[in-house]
Input
Amino acid sequence: MKTLKKERKQITRKRTILNFALVAIIGIGTGLFLGSWYSYAFLSNTIDYSGYTEDALLDNLDNTLKKATKLNNLSESDKQNWVSIAKQKGVSPKNLATYENVALAEYNLKNASSYKMYGTGKVETIANQTVYSVKYFDGNTYMFESISKGILTVADAFTMEKGGNTVTKIAGQNVSDTHADWTGTKTTISTTEFKANNGLLPSEVMAYLISSKTTKTSSGITETTGENNKKLYSFSLTLDPVSSVVNYVKQVKQTSGLSDYPTFDDITLNFTLDEDWNFVTFNLVENYRVPYGGLKPKCKGTLNYTFEINVPITLPAH
Output
């Protein structure tokens, strides 16, 4: 029996050495991509996201508002006027944690009369993809445009009425890097089904779950002076590559037409907020792997977002 166990250990060790040797040989002989493919396709485990829930991962927003306003109890009026209360008490973004500032800025955006969140970037992989993403709210309707061009061309828009319980998906036609005619096939489903399949609704702002439970590291918060002598606050944070993306992986799978969820290696976010906790810019770098044609190639995504808040917004024709 001891001899058999010893032989099994030797076989397991030999297989491990062979696997890593093949990674090295494939990488040297055909370039980084195939070496990476073998490593991730045969040596990596698929992540099970089913054990995570959004409610369990997010911080309690009322507690964050209480910290910002230094109030033990919050009325509805306090919640509506929390920024002025916080500023009267000398609280600024520098007095709060990075993830708390993001939650408060997201809360402000969700309560804005209108906004436009405009993003451009690219995904570097076997063949590069351009990425164009815009979220709109004109006071009545939410709309999300998503366009990606490269080895694949994917263009979809999603609309949802404020307070509505359905989402309409529209296929894009005559697609360019930053434009599509939203005149293609329309499909309408319930918000419940859309949330389950896509991770987040058109009315939701951040694809990532950002909280004390999903943040790995945070930078310091830098204060500068912007236009009209308004203070600006900049900071960065890195997210846990599993718990922070439990919604986002669903969106990436659906909008990219993938056979399975992507697997993230690391995520770095950079934010600039103004003194009223409004988003000014948001930049990200994410490294991940996607299942594609039986492979799991490495991808690097870089996206840069700018914001227009509480100004007249016109939705694209659809």
User: Anything to note?
Assistant: The two ends are 72 Å apart (CA to CA). The chain has a mean pLDDT of 86. The chain is about 30% helix and 30% strand.
